[in-house]
Amino acid sequence: MSRIKTICCIGAGYVGGPTMAVIAAQCPHIKVLVVDMNEDRIRAWNEEDLSKLPVYEPGLDNVVTQARGRNLFFSTDIDGAIDEADMIFTAVNTPTKTYGEGAGMAADLKYVELCARQIAKVAKNDKIVVEKSTLPVRTAEALKSILTNTGNGVKFQILSNPEFLAEGTAIEDLDAPDRVLVGGDISTIEGREAVQELVDIYAHWVPREKIVTTNLWSSELSKLTANAFLAQRISSINAMSEICEVTGADVEEVGKAIGKDSRIGGKFLKASVGFGGSCFQKDILNLVYIAKSYGLSEVAEYWHQVVKMNDYQKRRFARNIVKTLYNTVNDKKIAFLGWAFKKDTNDTRESAAIYVADLLLNEHAQISVYDPKVPAEKMYTDLDYLNTRTEKENRALLHCADSVYDAVKDAHAVVLLTEWDEFRELDWNKVYGSMMKPAFLFEGRNILDKEALTQIGFVCYFLGKSNLV
Ligand code: UDX
Ligand code: ADP
Predict the structure, then answer these.
(1) Nearest-CA residue for atom 16 of ligand 1
(2) Is there a smaller number of Cβ atoms within 10 Å at the N or the C end of the chain?
(3) How confident is the model at residue 142 (pLDDT cuts 50, 70, 90)?
(4) Is residue 335 within 8 Å of residue 414, measured between CB atoms?
(5) Beta pairing partners, 212
(6) What are phi and psi of 403, to 5 degrees?
């Protein structure tokens, strides 16, 4: 019989929010408290109007409706939640460090450490602490040390339970995961018992054979490895996309052909303007930093190349726009379709669109962006964060449009950066009609029909397709 009656999750972001909502929906007998120090975020999670939830994810509104107020609660009372919970998940952000040793590579564990210190301060009885945030290997050790050295003498078991959900499909991924990974101190009885408690929670809806248990370090390293392998596939197909463009091969045909090989598999072979999201770059840089810190320079360099290739892909896409537009985009209106790092999410972290925009703004382009889920403020925050120019300049040069047709009016070029389904359905004749001529189209996602668009009159550039004509 499980002794877990209440769980809490510190961090109500893209990971904590959806994950806890699904656990609460699947386990009505467990009380789930989601806490965050960000009051605005918590207020948004408690919004009656579900379109105002802080995270956009297909299906999330249904899950929240099912459980919120029943056994799912969002609040800023972090201490109260820690005190009440038998099991505490930490899902706080672990961005790449921007200062000091390891800047630009290592993970910044400031938020994780603050969280651990708060748990230690508040906890009055034994707790299981679960790392949900992606952490460098052996962080559990640091967590354990903080908890036991600063705590009130209570016992803590540390588990690693990395999240493998992808944004845009988070609810599907949580409902039917390929696997759930639980790492713990399996060399001790208490450790094995803690692992079992978490396994039992997932077993309410996940088949047992899909729940994998390992030691702590294997679990932490598996998360980084999975993301590194996935990102590597994208950089590999993106590298091939440039070869395709100059040789006349078609990267989609190549992807389909190799994907039929069951040893390779068909997923994650879509060439793109570059991978984005909060995980891939951060986790690989983290891996590179770990390898370097153990003196494994070849290993570090091997993985670093995946990120370098990704940066190159974004750069080469932007440069090609400038080159094609007669080597100048100065004062030309360029329409961006999409700003999110992929479809079906309002997340823009590391989105390729930000970097392509930054390069074009350096060339004094006027950019007009339409994204169905990303508000103007987020676009400006993303650009300001790069520190390339003043906030005032960013606001003068980039405009957030209310519709595609507003964005493309009198534009010299339309650039597709996010594969939102609605862009497939556009009236492309109307788009063409309202643009300057020649009307250039740069396709960074390969979701449109190149032949049909060429027929309409667009001068097309598609990633990884022959652009020799
Ligand atoms: C990723 C992992 O998939 C997930 O398991 C982990 O928990 C977090 O990181 P996420 O970043 O949400 O998830 O999205 P993902 O679907 O992996 O896409 C990442 C980026 O790669 C996006 O920018 C996407 O557009 C791009 N991508 C993906 C490609 O360019 N080509 C592909 O074939 C697949
Ligand atoms: P992820 O994509 O990993 O979920 P997010 O940035 O979306 O990352 O969410 C992390 C959340 O964690 C943020 O809402 C942030 O306010 C919260 N957070 C960070 N540190 C703490 C802390 N010490 N206590 C409570 N919440 C925290």
Answers:
(1) 166
(2) N
(3) confident
(4) yes
(5) 181
(6) -150, 165
pLDDT tens-digit series, residues 225-282? 999 999 999 999 999 999 999 999 999 999 999 999 999 999 999 999 999 999 999 9
**Residue 24 DSSP SS3:** helix
Q: Name every residue whose Cβ is closer than 8 Å to that of residue 117 and which is 6 or more positions away in sequence.
A: 146, 150
Tokens of 366: 């006027």
Residue 279 φ then ψ, to 5°? -105, -50
Please give the Cα distance from 154 to 124 (Å, whole number): 7
284 lines ligand 1 (CB under 6 A): no
How far apart are the C-alpha atoms of 434 and 436, rounded to whole Å?
7
pLDDT of amino acid 1: 61
> 430-464 burial by CB neighbour count: b if 16+ within 10 A, else e?
ebbeebeeebbbbbbbbebebeebeebebbbbbbb
Indicate the pTM of the whole model: 0.95
pLDDT tier for residue 416 given thresholds of 50, 70 and 90: very high
Cα separation of 286 and 104, whole Å?
A: 9
Which tens digits make up the pLDDT trace of 86-121? 999 999 988 888 899 888 888 888 899 999 999 999
Nearest atom (ligand 1) to Cα of 234: 31
- Output the six-digit token pair for 138: 């052996």
Please, are residues 97 and 286 in contact by the beta-carbon 8 Å criterion?
A: no
The ligand that comes nearest to the alpha carbon of residue 95 is 2
Which-ligand-closest: CA of 464?
1
